[in-house]
Design brief:
Layout lengths: L1 H6 L4 H4 L16 H4 L12 H11 L7 E4 L6 H13 L3 H4 E4 L7 H13 L16 E5 L7 H13 L4 E7 L7 H4 L3 E4 L5 H15 L7 H10 L3 H15 L4 H8 L4 H8 L4 H13 L4 H14 L5 H19 L4 H17 L2
Parallel strand pairs: 1-4, 1-5, 2-3, 3-4
Helix pairs in contact: 4-5, 7-8, 10-11, 11-12, 11-13, 12-13, 14-16, 15-18, 16-17, 17-18
The structure holds adenosine-5'-triphosphate (ATP).
Family: Belongs to the activator 1 small subunits family.
GO molecular function: ATP binding; ATP hydrolysis activity; DNA binding; DNA clamp loader activity
Protein name: AAA+ ATPase domain-containing protein
Length: 350
């Protein structure tokens, strides 16, 4: 470490341990999101429609080009990876090309890598003689970050190689995919997972890990923090367990950076400028995030039973402006104060 601080490089002896003797380092635990990634399509929670189509293609029907879209952590990547494993078994590596946003996916990659993979001819049996589909599968994760030119090149490759290759495009925002591609794919919208299904899955994972999560309050908190995103919930639980040694509702709030509900409500009920100033000062001193407060506030305002429609409109309008300014680098104190003034006026003039 000392040498690293001096030279910025890790020396060979440090890599092997300072005495040159092999160190017996414990492997870090696998992330739960990977360890519990569905192995088969039947392990996919919710998303009945797409599971049905994938099940049919496993039992022999042709697989269309697919476009999976929807919010993060709802099973899009897991579904196609599980289906690929079931379709191709131990030759999955040869039959599947998976590219995500961290790979270069400009027009050249589509022309070279995707096209040459698509043009490989393959047989319809596996090494053990068992039948398998005679096509290959190209998975393009985060397809909405591809340029329009790359998408246009992809469209031509899809057309030309459709006999030998199926494409599965995965994205969060379907509106960023060009129409000639969307019209060539069967589109499936992945919905945020139902609350009870998230709880059930989280409980299964915690039981397999031998982690106690008590009667339900903790898992309720995990669901509250994840908004239908199972990846986020699993990551939060594992972080909490590793950092704090146990999983508690307060621990989850801590590791996810959420603002406690009582602070959101306190901000929403400020009645005068002095209260507001004190709140903002303490809030920022305690190192909470202003953007996080605004995000949670938005949900609270929309679902509030005691604000009038007029109050909701006024607060929401200013909330949108302040969120945008924060994204543009506006000072947190200014934005929280500005929005707080609108809240004061709305609270005093219902
Ligand atoms: N429907 C689901 N059924 C079972 N597990 C799920 C489901 N959705 C998410 N998960 C869990 O969350 C992890 C992340 O899921 P996955 O990568 O499939 O999400 P995604 O929808 O592709 O997200 P992104 O849009 O961010 O790529 C998985 O490893 C799995 O543990």
């Amino acid at each position: 470490m000392q040498a690293f601080l001096k030279t910025g490089k890790i020396s060979a002896s440090e890599k092997a341990g300072s005495s040159g003797v092999k160190t017996n380092k414990k492997k870090p635990p696998a992330p739960w999101v990977e360890k519990y990634r569905p192995k088969t399509i039947d392990d996919i929670v919710d998303q009945g429609e797409v599971v049905q189509v994938l099940r049919e293609s496993l039992s022999g029907s042709d697989l269309p080009h697919l476009l999976f879209y929807g919010p993060p952590g709802t099973g899009k990547t897991s579904a196609i990876l599980a289906a690929a494993r079931q379709l191709f078994g131990d030759i999955t590596r040869d039959r599947v090309l998976e590219l995500n946003a961290s790979d270069e996916r400009g027009i050249q990659v589509i022309r070279d890598k995707v096209k040459s993979f698509a043009q490989l001819t393959v047989s319809s049996t596996k090494a053990d003689g068992k039948p398998c589909p005679s096509y290959k599968l190209v998975i393009l994760d985060e397809a909405d970050s591809m340029t329009n030119a790359a998408q246009a090149a992809l469209r031509r490759t899809m057309e030309r190689e459709t006999r030998t290759t199926r494409f599965c495009l995965i994205c969060n925002y379907v509106s960023r995919i060009i129409p000639p591609i969307t019209s060539r794919c069967s589109k499936f919208r992945f919905k945020p997972l139902a609350r009870e299904n998230v709880i059930k899955r989280l409980r299964e994972v915690c039981e397999s890990e031998g982690v106690d999560v008590g009667d339900g309050e903790v898992l309720e908190q995990a669901v509250h923090t994840c908004d239908g995103d199972l990846r986020r919930a699993l990551t939060a639980l594992q972080c909490c367990q590793r950092l704090l040694g146990k999983i508690t509702a307060e621990g989850l709030i801590e590791v996810t950076g959420l603002v406690p509900d009582h602070l959101v409500n306190e901000y929403l009920s400020v009645m005068n400028y002095n209260e507001l100033e004190l709140f903002v000062e303490k809030f920022l001193m305690d190192a909470y995030s202003a953007s996080q407060l605004l995000e949670q506030l938005s949900a609270t305002v929309v679902s509030s039973g005691h604000l009038t429609n007029k109050q909701k409109c006024e607060i929401s309008e200013k909330l949108a402006v302040c969120s945008h300014r924060l994204l543009d680098g506006g000072a947190e104190v200014m934005q929280l104060t500005d929005l707080g003034c609108t809240i004061i006026m709305a609270n005093n003039n219902p």
